[in-house]
Specification:
By secondary structure, the protein is α+β, with helices and mostly antiparallel strands. It has helices at residues 35-44, 70-78; strands spanning 47-49, 55-57. This is DUF3039 family protein. Residues 1-27 are annotated as: Disordered. InterPro entries: DUF3039. It comes from Herbihabitans rhizosphaerae.
Length: 85
C-alpha cells in the first residue's frame, strides 16, 4: 500500500508591477508628452518625460475620453500655441 500526501500551496502574485487583480495593465491616467518622443519610446522602450515631470516608457496610447493627468492638462493649457516653448 502507498500513501500519498498532498499540500495546498499559498497563492503567489506573479503579475508584473502595475497590473491589478483584473490583469488590466492600462494606465490609470494618460500624460502629455512630446509627440516626437512617443513613437521612439514605443519602439525602443526608452522613457519619456511628461509635462508634469513623470518619467515612464510608452506602453499604451490614449483613446478619446481617456482620463488625463490634471497637472499635465493645466501645464498644457498655459503653453503658448504653435511653439515648442
Amino acid at each position: 500500500m502507498v500513501l500519498v500526501s498532498t499540500q495546498t500551496l499559498p497563492d503567489v502574485d506573479t503579475r508584473p508591477e502595475g497590473t491589478d487583480a483584473t490583469g488590466d495593465d492600462s494606465p490609470k491616467m494618460f500624460h502629455y508628452v512630446r509627440k516626437e518622443k512617443i513613437a521612439e519610446s514605443a519602439v525602443m522602450g526608452s522613457h519619456v518625460v511628461a509635462l508634469c515631470g513623470e518619467v515612464f516608457p510608452v506602453t499604451k496610447s490614449a483613446k478619446p475620453g481617456s482620463p488625463v493627468c490634471p497637472d499635465c492638462k493645466k501645464i498644457y493649457e498655459r503653453m503658448r500655441p504653435g511653439g515648442d516653448d
